[in-house]
């Protein structure tokens, strides 16, 4: 049974390792033939490595990307059945158009991997007026998931995998009194809030999916990986990070993608679990079940965030 019911706190079942394997790699991905996987932000970094691995194992992979030319170039570097779909997560209009296109093309979707994201950007807005990081990382994926969910519901083994970050622990809260950073904006706090929202969304989605028993929601984080996501770090921090990361604590994108890939494909995964590296401070290592912050498990806050997200995006989910 994949669904675990309530995830108001990390139970022993949710925190258990799915098996005794300590060196899970892409070689452990089961055959994905016949499965359709939609992956946001899949033209570079973690998304690219995730898509490449799934395609290599037989999945039909959709690269949902803002720049289709870059998407086509990325697809050409992969082996297998890979197509490109335009998707701009900073625009609800684009999200609705992409969802409509995908629903017209596919009767079922087996994997939705909410991978795309921005990090520590200067203060800016999406097309709909949302703070860029919260709007892209959380609200964009919330809307896309809600619009596509009917294609994942009641599909045996279907999963929604949302990529969070260890950075969700650095801000400590969802700032409901200033969600869009209008009164006070700190780029790291805004990033942390968006990544905490990813987790709270996953846990609440799992609670709502559990009674149906087939589709599950899972989260993952890559640890510290050398990707383009760090390009918006403030300059002094960026220089120090980029100089130290490759040798001290970061891992390459193909290793950073392993928690997402395990969450998406390991047969023993439970709904509501969270995957990350097993090394010091979860910065690098083998993909295992990890715990998120205490606040992320607050059911009342999860439900409040869900309600606010529905109001802001005007997207409701086909779930009771």
Automatic annotation (TrEMBL):
UniProt KW Oxidoreductase keyword: yes
CDD domains, A to Z: retinol-DH_like_SDR_c_like
Top-rank taxon, per record: Bacteria
Annotated TM spans: none
Signal sequence range: none
InterPro entries reported in the protein's UniProt record: NAD(P)-bd_dom_sf (IPR036291), SDR_fam (IPR002347)
Record Pfam families: adh_short
Any GO molecular function: oxidoreductase activity
Keyword set, alphabetical order: Oxidoreductase
SUPFAM superfamilies on file: NAD(P)-binding Rossmann-fold domains
Record flagged with keyword Oxidoreductase: yes
Family membership noted in the UniProt record: Belongs to the short-chain dehydrogenases/reductases (SDR) family.
Full protein name: Short-chain dehydrogenase
Annotated organism of origin: Mycolicibacterium duvalii
Taxonomic classification: Bacteria, Bacillati, Actinomycetota, Actinomycetes, Mycobacteriales
């Amino acid at each position: 049974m994949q669904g675990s019911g309530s995830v108001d706190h990390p139970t022993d079942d949710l925190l258990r390792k799915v098996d005794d394997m300590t060196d899970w790699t892409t070689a452990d991905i089961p055959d994905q033939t016949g499965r359709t996987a939609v992956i946001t932000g899949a033209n570079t970094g973690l998304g690219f490595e995730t898509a490449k691995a799934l395609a290599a194992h037989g999945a039909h992979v959709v690269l949902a990307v803002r720049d289709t030319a870059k998407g086509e170039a990325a697809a050409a570097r992969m082996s297998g059945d890979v197509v490109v779909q335009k998707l701009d997560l900073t625009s609800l209009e684009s999200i609705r158009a992409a969802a409509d296109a995908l629903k017209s093309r596919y009767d079922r979707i087996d994997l939705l991997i909410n991978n795309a994201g921005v990090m520590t950007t200067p203060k800016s807005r999406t097309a709909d007026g949302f703070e860029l990081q919260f709007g892209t990382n959380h609200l964009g994926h919330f809307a896309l998931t809600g619009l596509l969910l009917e294609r994942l519901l009641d599909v045996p083994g279907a999963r929604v995998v949302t990529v969070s970050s260890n950075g969700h622990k650095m801000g400590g809260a969802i700032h409901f009194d200033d969600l869009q950073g209008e009164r006070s904006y700190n780029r790291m706090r805004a990033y942390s809030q968006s990544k905490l929202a990813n987790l709270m969304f996953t846990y609440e989605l799992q609670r709502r999916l559990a009674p149906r028993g087939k589709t599950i929601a899972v989260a993952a984080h890559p640890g510290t990986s050398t990707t383009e996501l760090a390009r918006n770090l403030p300059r002094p921090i960026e220089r120090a990070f980029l100089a130290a990361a490759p040798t001290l604590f970061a891992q390459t994108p193909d290793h950073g993608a392993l928690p997402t890939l395990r969450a998406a494909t390991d047969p023993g995964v439970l709904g509501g679990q969270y995957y990350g590296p097993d090394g010091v401070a979860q910065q690098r290592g083998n993909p295992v079940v990890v715990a998120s912050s205490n606040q992320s498990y607050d059911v009342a806050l999860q439900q409040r965030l869900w309600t606010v997200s529905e109001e802001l995006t005007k997207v409701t989910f086909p779930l009771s």
